[in-house]
Design goal:
The chain has about 400 residues and is of the alpha/beta class. The protein has 2 domains: about 150 residues, Aspartate Aminotransferase, domain 1, CATH 3.90.1150.10; about 240 residues, Aspartate Aminotransferase, domain 2 (3-Layer(aba) Sandwich), CATH 3.40.640.10. It is about 45% helix and about 15% strand. The chain contains 14 helices and 15 strands. Helix 5 packs parallel to helix 6. The protein is globular. The structure holds pyridoxal-5'-phosphate. The site of pyridoxal-5'-phosphate has 13 residues, from helix 5. Pyridoxal-5'-phosphate binds next to helix 5.
């Protein structure tokens, strides 16, 4: 059956890469593909206790709740934001079903077909998909290791009058990049000068491998007018709980709450209550130290493989946090082709091309280092190198 009118979603559905990633799940393949935390590090018992408390507290937690979210959870989130230097009152926090929903709501509020969004290049794939669904005109701003290039950004703001600028300044997906303070300030100055909104997506800042925490754009925006900030418990607690949040200019939060009403009325009251109980009792700082230590160790194992190989073969910037290693292969190679051979060898990754809003760099790939154990990462990297050797050797013989 063909549904010719379902154009919005058809334009972004299954590519060959997606189909391949689906096959991976059904086979004995080591996957560096998803943005998955390690379930072995989830605080399972503490979450179980929190959910038990929800059910012991009676039927109210199973009732409909306010769209904006559980008031106690909003208070707890606002306290966490204060620790990051973000002065968000709890009334100005919208609890969302993951930060993915926050991105979707912002798109829903602002984007009509043909409206422009400025993004980094490469950018988070599911954000690009969300903007595409609303038929936005997605324009990539030139970036380097420190963030967007201010001159190019200003030219594109003036030329395209974007509805907003979407960025992940701290340990980005896919590049694992962290913006310099100077570039953060430059972005904010331009947003103020040209009266443009910034959407700061910050799921990864708690997973840092350095002592110093990069300052969020929302903390630099002391007037609270130019930055919409979203984050999540998915990467630090567990993604299955599906709790994220959005904060920023009051009027935008109000409109986003209205948009959320037509999406899901509210985020699960059970999950929100459980998260409240969980946060009250849980030693979060200790947990974060553990995650950082574990994930850094895994990154080191992965990087050791790249460092061991021909020094001219790979190029990457060492991530200072987050979940991803972004690698360029210094050969004429399409990593979508490499993926096919890699899957036969028993390992998977995401080819870089779909992350680009402009000209795709087909010699790039994204590796996740947080899901597999160090031993499995070793095995997976061994397989990946074998796959690459095969592909490069076959091209010599061609
Ligand atoms: C950059 C970025 N934003 C948002 C999300 C969505 O996270 P969630 O909806 O689980 O909070 C992800 C998940 O991988 C992500 O990488």
């Amino acid at each position: 059956m063909v549904y010719p009118f379902a154009t919005r979603v058809q334009s972004i559905t299954s590519s060959a890469v997606r189909d391949l990633l689906r096959i991976i799940q059904s086979r004995d393949v080591i996957s560096f593909a998803g943005g998955l935390p390690d379930e072995g590090l989830f605080p399972v018992q503490e979450l179980e206790l929190a959910y038990q408390k929800v059910f012991l507290s009676g039927g109210k937690s199973l009732q409909y709740g306010p769209t904006e979210g559980d008031s106690e959870l909003r208070l707890l989130i606002s306290e966490r934001l204060k620790e990051k230097g973000i002065a968000a009152s709890h009334e100005n926090i919208l609890v969302t079903t993951g930060s993915q929903q926050a991105i979707d709501l912002v798109a829903k509020v602002f984007l009509s077909p043909g409206d422009t969004v400025l993004v980094e290049d490469p950018a988070y794939l599911a954000a690009l998909q969300a903007f595409n669904i609303y038929e936005a005109n997605i324009i990539a701003v030139q970036s380097d290791a420190d963030g967007m290039i201010p001159e190019d950004l200003e030219e594109k703001i003036v030329t395209h009058r974007p509805k907003f600028i979407y960025v992940i300044p701290t340990f980005s997906n896919p590049q694992g990049k962290v913006w310099s303070k100077k570039r953060r300030e430059a972005l904010l100055n331009l947003a103020v000068k040209h009266n443009v909104l910034i959407v700061e997506d910050d799921p990864y800042s708690d997973l840092r491998f350095t002592d110093e925490a990069p300052i969020p754009l929302a903390a630099i925006d002391t007037l609270g007018k130019h930055v919409l900030y979203t984050s999540t418990f998915s990467k630090t607690v567990a993604p299955g709980v599906r709790i994220g949040w959005l904060t920023g200019p009051t009027e935008v939060i109000r409109m986003s709450a209205l948009a959320k009403q037509s999406s899901d009325l509210h985020t699960s009251t059970i999950d929100q209550r459980a998260m409240c109980y969980f946060l009250q009792d849980f030693p979060m700082q200790q947990h974060l130290y553990r995650l950082r230590e574990q994930y850094k160790q895994r990154l080191d194992v992965m990087q050791a493989y790249l460092k061991k190989s021909d020094p001219n073969l790979f190029q990457w910037v060492e991530p200072k946090g987050g979940m991803f290693l972004w690698v360029s292969i210094n050969r004429e190679i399409d990593t979508a082709d490499l993926l096919k051979v890699a899957v036969e060898e028993g390992v998977a990754f995401v080819p870089g091309a779909p992350f680009f809003a402009s000209q795709p760099q087909t010699n790039t790939l994204r590796l996740n280092y947080t899901h597999a154990s160090p031993e499995v990462i070793e095995m997976g990297m061994c397989r990946l190198m074998a796959a690459l050797d095969k592909v490069l050797a076959s091209r010599v013989h061609d």
